[in-house]
Amino acid sequence: MISPPCLLVCHIYGREFGSQSLGIHEPQCLEKWRTENSKLPKHLRRPEPSKPLPLSGSGSYNLQPHTAVPTVTDKVIRAT
């Protein structure tokens, strides 16, 4: 039986990426977050998300999708 690939979760938006893709994605994702956050009224702006500390000595981290920043879908699901 083949095991599924190990996917890591972006700490900003909660999407899953392969271990090599995440390092490419994170800077682009953070820039997108900054752009979107700056468009909000000042009272709705959020502090910049910080990268979580590694959970192991490997220097990598692995978040479950539910621990990442809530998405619009999460808010809609909780409201119903």
UniProtKB/TrEMBL annotation:
Region (Disordered) location: 38-67
InterPro entries: ZC2HC1A/B-like
Protein name according to UniProt: Zinc finger protein 474
Organism annotation: Phocoena sinus
